[in-house]
From TrEMBL:
It comes from Melia azedarach. Keywords: Methyltransferase, Transferase. This is S-adenosyl-L-methionine-dependent methyltransferases superfamily protein. The lineage of its organism: Eukaryota, Viridiplantae, Streptophyta, Embryophyta, Tracheophyta.
Length: 270
């Protein structure tokens, strides 16, 4: 059974099962940790007062950045949704038609395509910037778009064969960037030694931090099963820990008893 529980300083999800609920908040204040083996939580900084032990969702819940994806998160926890699917579902709640978004690791193009569907409409204002260090990946993304979208939609995508640490060189200075997404690791079906690296991932995150607008999102799927993956997760976490709690809500979703499962990190700018 899934229920909402309210503690005085935080909003929490809890599961009434003997399951560790593996959500950790990376922000540096108001972090709730639940020692009980039957519940663990994601928590947010309090926005308004409300009474403890109130069973109905508090009014601020509707404004929370994870509002609307509660069921998807539960499905992820129980292995019914993949990390990338959860990320796509969350993007739907953040990205609007006409927005500018960045796929920092376009790979085979599935994330680029998902973003394009979110920003494209008849206004023709939306824009997706896709970057990948491998020429082959950019080609693969272009092929997927050729097969699946119309010319007008294709015109909204700009692909670059370059390192994501240089994203500010291609995204116009006045662009209102709503989402920067990273799907780290290596290109599936390709050379597994070409992976994202902590030293360039951190530069890309710093660039994303600079260009993201308020109410925007840095979304990350981090793979820890390959060589260097855990170090990269540590780099991502260290970056998130440094972000001011006044301006960012940072959370991580990780399955504790599936140590190789991809980790989701969401950094909401407010
Ligand atoms: C897991 S794949 C991305 C999957 C992709 N988003 C999709 O939907 O198919 C990771 C990608 O990151 C790319 N990559 C590695 N280092 C990079 C860097 N410094 N800058 C940009 N892309 C990089 C790899 O070439 C690979 O295509």
């Amino acid at each position: 059974m899934f229920s909402l529980r309210i503690w005085s300083q935080s909003l929490s999800f809890s599961l009434h099962r003997k399951t560790l609920f593996p959500f950790t908040v990376l922000s540096n204040t108001n972090v709730s940790r639940f020692a009980s083996s039957s519940c663990c939580a994601v928590s947010f900084q309090k926005k308004e007062n409300f009474s403890a032990h109130n069973d109905s969702p508090p009014s601020f819940f509707k404004d929370s950045p994870l509002s609307g994806v509660e069921n998807d998160l539960v499905n992820y926890v129980f292995g019914k949704k993949k990390a990338t699917e959860v990320a796509h579902l969350l993007w739907k709640h953040v990205v609007q038609k006409g927005d500018t978004v960045i796929d920092a690791t376009c790979g085979n193009g599935y994330d680029t395509l998902a973003m394009l569907k979110l920003v494209a409409d008849e206004s023709g204002l939306g824009c997706v910037y896709g970057l990948d260090i491998q020429r082959e990946a950019v080609g693969s993304t272009a092929s997927l778009l050729n097969e699946t979208v119309n010319e007008a939609e294709k015109g909204l995508v700009k692909l670059f064969n370059m390192c994501h640490s240089r994203m500010e060189e291609v995204v116009p200075i006045n662009a209102s960037v709503r989402l920067v997404a990273f799907n780290l690791g290596y290109l599936p079906g390709s050379d597994k030694t070409v992976t994202t690296k902590p030293e360039t991932t951190i530069l890309a995150l710093e660039a994303a931090e600079r260009i993201l607008i308020r109410d925007g999102l840095i979304s990350m799927v981090v793979y820890v099963g390959h060589s260097g993956g855990r170090e990269e997760l540590e780099t991502v976490e260290a970056f998130a820990h440094r972000l001011s709690v006044d301006n960012w809500i940072c959370c991580k979703f990780q399955m504790l008893n599936r140590p190789l499962a991809p980790v989701l990190v969401f950094l909401f700018k407010r």
